[in-house]
């Protein structure tokens, strides 16, 4: 998957190498969550009982790898600072493919103007509520306060990848980043 390949390379370049046998775990999970990032162990958990399709698993892996990347590069305070969590959830919803038009149609959510941002905001709030015992108002306030900055932070993709083709281009650009900068 080009999304995962790019994120794994970005993690490596940031000094945080990921080992498949150490940093990924398949488990049965409660509720309807599909995965999670455990900051204490730097481990991505895939909920095998809630993932039914390869495309869904790819999105979950990408979403959680974005959290791992944020953990590596930004030293996120996952447990005490809800704004940090909100920022990473915004980035994960924005960059992982969670809010592509096709996924939204499959959820029976339609809209054109500003729909991607609305989806990102809603999914970030849902994710915060799934992992922290905070009120909906607290989650909404945290998302609103950091939304613009975090929505516009496109690292390591450099763009919002709306398709696998976009993700492949982003990966190619990421691989060539140093060559471009060396010529400046």
TrEMBL record:
E.C. number(s) listed in UniProt: 3.4.24.-
Hydrolase listed as a keyword: yes
Biological processes, Gene Ontology terms: mitochondrial protein processing; mitochondrial proton-transporting ATP synthase complex assembly
UniProt keyword annotations, A-Z: Hydrolase, Metal-binding, Metalloprotease, Protease
InterPro entries: Peptidase_M76_ATP23
GO MF assignments: metal ion binding; metalloendopeptidase activity
Gene Ontology CC entries for this record: mitochondrion
Keyword Hydrolase found: yes
Family membership noted in the UniProt record: Belongs to the peptidase M76 family.
Protein name: Mitochondrial inner membrane protease ATP23
Organism listed in the record: Machaerirhynchus nigripectus
């Amino acid at each position: 998957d080009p999304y995962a390949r790019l994120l794994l390379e970005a993690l490596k370049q940031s000094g945080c190498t990921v080992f498949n046998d150490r940093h990924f775990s398949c488990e049965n999970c409660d509720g309807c969550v599909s995965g999670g990032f455990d900051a204490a162990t730097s481990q991505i958990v895939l909920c095998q009982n809630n993932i039914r399709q390869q495309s869904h698993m790819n999105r979950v892996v990408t979403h959680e790898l974005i959290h791992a990347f944020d953990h590596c590069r930004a030293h996120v305070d996952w447990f005490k600072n809800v704004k940090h969590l909100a920022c990473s959830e915004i980035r994960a919803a924005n960059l992982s493919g969670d809010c592509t038009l096709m996924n939204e149609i499959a959820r029976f959510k339609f809209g054109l103007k500003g729909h991607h941002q609305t989806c990102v905001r809603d999914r970030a709030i849902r994710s915060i509520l799934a992992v922290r015992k905070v009120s909906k108002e607290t989650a909404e306030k945290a998302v609103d306060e950091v939304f613009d900055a975090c929505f516009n932070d496109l690292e390591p993709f450099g763009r919002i990848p709306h398709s696998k083709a976009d993700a492949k281009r982003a990966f190619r650009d990421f691989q060539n980043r140093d060559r471009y900068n060396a010529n400046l």
